[in-house]
Design goal:
The protein is of the alpha+beta class and 141 residues long. The protein is built from six helices and four strands. Strand 3 and strand 4 form a beta hairpin. Belongs to the ABC transporter superfamily.
């Protein structure tokens, strides 16, 4: 990838993720959410067609979380494929065109958020998850 393209993409992503004023600081001084945003920036510089994101908004404040959601939605509009793992059901409901609910390593539900909500006759994906897995808190999770 051309150096000028890398610089421009880096600048644009740093700005979108709200790190412009902090980018010269040592990463060791970054808080958790800042490190997550930087990690996302680094994963996007080369403009991948497919992106795997594991719990991308854990530890983020609402503004940072919304910026990540906006970026993921923008990537989807550009035709990129984003695989997302999350325990935040509202995040899955907002971002996923299709999703799988996994319990103990097995897919127990598959469909669009609307399909699953309708199928289980509940208000949201969190209620779908609880309906499928139960309310009991599990050991070691």
């Amino acid at each position: 990838m051309d150096k000028n393209i890398i610089k421009e993409r880096s600048r644009m992503l740093i700005e979108k993720m709200g790190l412009s004023t902090d980018i010269k600081r040592k990463v060791g001084k970054y808080r958790g959410g800042m490190k997550r945003r930087l990690s996302l920036i680094l994963s996007l510089i080369h403009d991948p067609e497919v992106l795997f994101l594991d719990e991308p908004t854990v530890g983020m404040d609402p503004q940072s979380r919304r910026a990540v959601w906006d970026l993921i939605n923008e990537l989807k509009k550009l035709g990129k494929t984003v695989f997302l793992t999350t325990h935040y059901m509202e995040e899955a409901e907002e971002l996923c065109d299709r999703l799988a609910i996994i319990d103990h390593g097995k897919i127990i539900a598959l469909g669009t958020p609307k399909e699953l909500i309708s199928k289980y006759n509940v208000k949201n994906l969190e209620d779908v998850f609880i309906a499928l897995t139960g309310r009991k808190i599990r050991e070691g999770m």
